Amino acid sequence: MREEVARYIVHFEDASKDDHPRLGGKCAGLATLIAAGAAVPTGFAVTVQAYADMLATHGLHNEIAKRTDQISTDDVAGQAAVAEEIRDLITARPMPTDVSAAIRAGYQDLGARAGRDVPVAVRSSGTAEDLPEASFAGQGDTYLWTVGVDAVISRVRDCWASLFTARAIAYRAKQGLGQLDLLMAVGVQQMVDASAAGVAMSLDPSNGDRSKIVIESTWGLGEPLVSGQITPDYFVIDKVLLVPVKRTIVPKLQELVADHQARKTVTRDVDEARQNVPSLTENQLRAVARAVKAVEKAIGVPQDIEWAIDTQRQEDEGVVLLQSRPETVWSNKKTEATGARTYATGIEGVLSTLLSPLASREKRNSNNLEGGHHDSTSTFPKSL
Amino acid sequence: MTAQARFPSPYDLKSPPGSEGWQDFYPYFTLFLDELKPVDEKRFWFCDAQHWPTPFRPFDTIMVEYACKCLGQYNTRHLMVPPANGIDYRIHNGYLYMSPIAVAADKIAARVPQFLERAGFYFQNWSSLLEKWHVKVRKIIDDLEALKFEPLPDVVPLQWILEGRGLDNTYELIENYDRAIQLCYKAWQHHFEFLNLGYAAYLDFFGFCKEQFPDIPDQAIARMVQGVDVDLFRPDDELKKLARLAVETSVDEALMNGSVDQALAAAASRPNGKNWIDAWNAAKYPWFNFTSGNGFYSADKYWIEHLDIPLSYVRNYISQVRKGMKIERPTAEVAAERERITKEYAELLPKDARPVFEQKLGLARTVFPYVENHNFYIEHWSLGVFWRKMRELSRLFMSAGFWSDPEGLFYLNRNEVREALFDYCSAWAVGVDAVGPRYWPQRVEQRKKIMAALATQKPQPALNEPPDVVTEPFTIMLWGITTDRINSWLKGTGTNSKQLTGMAASPGTVEGLARVIRSADELDQIKDGEILVTPVTAPSWAPVFSKISATVTDIGGMMSHAAIVCREYGLPAVTATGSASSVIKTGQRLRVDGSKGEVTILS
Fold first, then answer.
1. Looking at chain B, which residue has its C-alpha nearest residue A348?
2. pLDDT tens digits, one per residue of B562-581
3. How far does A334 lie from chain B, in Å, by closest CA?
4. Long-range contacts of B100-106 (CB under 8 A, 24+ apart)
5. pLDDT, tens only, B386-426
6. A367 vs B84: CB contact, 8 Å cut-off?
């Protein structure tokens, strides 16, 4: 039994580097985060093996291939219908008992730590979505505030099925990726009761400046921010001094919060007094930046991170990290930019400094915290 | 910028009541003359309240003239800085206004080879030239120290007759005055010999950092470049050493009460007293050639002439040592932090930019000690001796009845002093009473009243229509005058008087009670933990920095003296707020955020 459990689930903190291919991108990222010393809500990955065995048990490979082969790229309505059919193939079938038993064991383990049935987030963790060269945005579903083992099992199956949205199928076809080559792990992770949450990048995505940490933040859970439904507060922090150099505080009219009774998240109005208040205190801001900086340093490449302020946590201003992925846009761009510019040094450098109009650098002395160009919506590429 | 967004014209500004006639104090070429109106009214002038925060007396104009002239000569005539000539200057209602002079676009290219050759030579030979500079400046100081201003004797010495000298005592007296003026002039020339280049190299590194890391805090760049062992901090360090020595050798109690003479006598009578007195005397030269002002005013008090100032600081340090406080500057921490910051930024650069970063930083660090240290050698030491000699001359005039105030001389401009000196000498030779004692006393009194009237009015931050953008490198770096700053001046402070923004000059956040200080004479009012709020600080206020918890100034760039000292002392500082010292009242509770450049009035 223990062996069966290990085949199908891996607790994040137990995952070794060798496990990563089994965990999918998202869960491997969480394991990496923990290894990097970050505080991460507890949880486990349902391995790709579970998905593979699900397909094998029910002979779904042929069923799916049959359907994806017939999809025409022009027939949008037809695509959607086929995609739905495939998803039904998965969600309508029971999970192999060894798999469900392993998930049950894992979930009960989380519950034992907390002393109750804990609410969890069930997240897709695909094997291709986080490859640095292919930002597989929009792939795989996430189900927040899932409580009880049966619900968790059902959501895991939903995550598997979410590999087969019309959009994902079309994307894979366009990229020449096999429809069945990609495997899907699923993360089951304790929900954070967040007072504020958001995303952060360990570089400035607007210009690739690696000395900055850009943080977007809103009240409550981070989902509406991550999915681009709301405009967040925006901060730019200098990574070395850990001081804010820019900020834009926006009115935050709604927030997504946990409804403990109803075992779900609800969107509610933000009371007036908090609407225009920065969703992070100065200390929290610094703590988020510190955590981001530490993770980037441990992993060695710029990171794109989801974080939350956990009301239950005392240390580090309550900062926990929910996800970290390598930043793709600037990391890929960098190679072509390198070497394109040469700099004068010594007296020639001084001369060019005196000659070049400083007007373009005019912002430099202002440390203008309110100013700074900022789009009304998130500057980040959307994950999820 | 809209057409109406402009500062007043000097030609429309009224002089404060009672200040009529102030124009007579200052040279004709420094005034907004009617003849210059068509030209001067079209130019933008900003007030240099950073160096001259209060109206200056007629004699003190020497510093304005020499500073502005000598700054200009290096850009315009020595180094041929391609795009920038000097900074033109005008005096209005007792305040100094400046206007940078750009080189015409079609003349810039021709200056480039000259600049490369001339400035290049200085950069390549920085250390050896700087060694020579120290020798030259020490010679100026020694020559100034050697000057004597003694009353004329009744009779020319017999020896001079016997050796057939054929000259009288007035010859040397007048010559000494002329030499003092010339030595002051020389000191100012050397003041700028390295300074413009130092700032230019710093700007080069600064610009590179801004390009690589847009929005990098200015203070981050400053902290990478700023030195740790700086002569400018030595005077204060000496006082701390004296305080510690006093406590360690049980001389401290003897020093705590009475006048300077009483305290030193009491200390001398202690078993280890002689040792301490020797240390005190050893520290005096040269380190007490140090002023709580900035050296530009004849009223600046120098420690060496006012031993009560350093003694009061020593007393303060003694009481801190007794409480077990660490009074020494955290130099090791500052140095370690400097290396951490530098290393982290370097690692964030693309590989090919790192050698460039190292090279530019290296040059900036080579030149920057001069930027920090020249202050001690010129403003504090050389000018300190100059002012002391001029006070000696003023007392000579006083004894001859020219005025009754030891400061009387400073109400004359330097050419009038020369005239008065000749009056004194001529009358002595002719054998009559000098005219001065009947001419000057009432004029000195009148001028004092005019000075007092001028001081009732604050300067305009700027005059006439501002440029669309400020591009002049020295204006931005030294005076912190940017397009944003000008716009905030134009807006005024009315919108949110509870919140002031300025330059984030030194990091950290503190809350505390405000102490508004308008001049160095008020420094003794400061209590432990208060936040110093002032138009402008001088680095020589160092000893109060161990008492205060933060600094807020009206004026000053990232490399202003205040910003440098605050970073050195690890205190939050917000500079260039424009109006903090008039908006904030002593006793108000403030939050100073030196990382963001914000000052909030809490109550």
1. B116
2. 777 777 777 888 887 877 88
3. 9
4. B100/B472, B100/B474, B100/B475, B101/B72, B101/B76, B102/B472
5. 999 999 999 999 999 999 999 999 999 999 999 999 999 99
6. no
